[in-house]
From TrEMBL:
Family classification: Belongs to the IS21/IS1162 putative ATP-binding protein family.
Organism of this sequence: Crateriforma conspicua
Protein's UniProt keywords contain ATP-binding: yes
Protein origin, superkingdom: Bacteria
UniProt KW Amino-acid biosynthesis keyword: no
Protein name per its UniProtKB record: DNA replication protein DnaC
One Pfam family here: IstB_IS21
SUPFAM superfamilies on file: P-loop containing nucleoside triphosphate hydrolases
NCBIfam families given in the database record: IS21_help_AAA
Gene Ontology molecular function, alphabetical: ATP binding
UniProt keyword annotations, A-Z: ATP-binding, Nucleotide-binding
Length: 260
């Protein structure tokens, strides 16, 4: 490919076409492709690259804590998890009806992994996703409130097709947390989908938030059309810790090596 053509493709932002054009030219010559067939191939290359880049941008904007995918999830470890329901959510159909999702279960059972993996999957379907832990949510509002930018931070939480709020119940939240969470849930209710994970019973939310009326109002709206997934079973983290401990040999002469 000559330099002028390469520069023109870059100027037109046809990077995907520029990357594969040399190979496609050789393919066209070897396979005696028509002009139309050749054009279809190079345009498909450009479309594919643009699609991949769009997904990459969407994942970066989502702000996931970890890179999680459903194909990496060990469904065999906790067989109580409804695999069909998880993949149904990953299809993104629930977003069309602005339905919410609540994942409940003990710590370490895979809630955060599944939430982020579903978020990653719906980004591939074209959805805009924003991921935050509940602590990040409260921190964002406290910071912007002090700076006089409450509406600006609220807009970030109202815009995405799917908002994922993780780690509800890890510890008690600061004052006014209930107000912030209620504002988000109320404004997104029946307009955009929200997914939350919690390791505490719903009746404990009033204590966690420090505001029983706000907790009741949040749950009243959120649960109205929410898909509730109860995840039980052993902890993945404990499983990995057990594997690590089994793989560690006690040094010679230690108590662990002594037989009684």
């Amino acid at each position: 490919m000559n330099e002028n053509l390469s520069r023109t493709l870059r100027e037109l932002r046809l990077g995907g076409m520029a990357e594969t054009l040399e190979v496609r030219l050789q393919e066209a010559s070897a396979s005696k492709l028509t002009h139309l067939e050749f054009l279809e191939l190079v345009l498909a290359d450009e479309s594919l690259v643009r699609g991949d880049r769009k997904i990459e941008r969407g994942v970066r904007r989502a702000g996931f804590r970890d890179v999680r995918r459903l194909e990496d999830f060990d469904f065999a470890f906790n067989r109580s998890i409804d695999r069909a329901k998880v993949f149904e959510l990953a299809s993104g159909h629930f977003l069309r009806g602005a339905k919410d999702v609540l994942m409940c279960g003990p710590p370490g059972t895979g809630k955060s992994h599944l939430a982020q993996a579903i978020g990653h999957a719906v980004i591939r379907c074209g959805a805009v996703v924003y991921y935050r832990s509940i602590f990040d949510v409260v921190r964002d509002f406290l910071h912007d409130e002090a700076m006089g930018g409450e509406e600006k931070v609220l807009a970030k939480y109202l815009k995405p097709d799917l908002l994922i709020i993780d780690d509800m119940g890890m510890k008690q939240l600061p004052k006014r947390s209930g107000e912030y969470l209620f504002e988000i849930v109320m404004r997104r209710h029946e307009v955009r989908s929200t997914m939350m994970t919690t390791n505490r019973p719903l009746e404990d939310w009033g204590k966690l938030i420090g505001d029983v009326p706000s907790a009741s109002a949040i749950l009243d709206r959120f649960l109205q059309s929410a898909e509730i997934m109860k995840i039980t079973g052993r902890s993945y983290r404990l499983k990995n810790a057990e594997k690590s401990s089994k793989g560690t040999k006690a040094p010679p002469g230690s108590t662990a090596e002594t037989k009684e």
